[in-house]
Amino acid sequence: MKRFLQLLGPGLLYAGAAIGVSHLVQSTRAGAEFGFDLMWVLLAANLLKFPFFEVGSRYVLATGNNLIYAYNREGRWVLWLFLALTLVTMFPILAAITIVTAGLSNNLIPTGLSILQTSGIILIITLLILIIGRFRLLNDIIKVVILLLTVSTIIAVVAALGPQAHRPDFSIGQFDWMSKTHILFLITFIGWMPAPIDIVVWGSLWSQSKNMELTEKPTIKEVLIEFRVGFFGTMLVAAAFLALGALIMNQSGETPSPSSIVFADQLVNLYTKSIGDWAYSVIALAAFTTMLSTTLSVADAYPRTVKESIHYLFPNSPSKKLSYIFWMIVLMSGTMLVLSQSSSMRFLVSVATILSFVTAPVLAYLNYRVITNKLIPKMYQPAAYLKVWSVVGIIFLTLFTLFYIVWMFVA
Question: What is 2-409's CATH number?
Answer without folding.
Answer: 1.20.1740.10
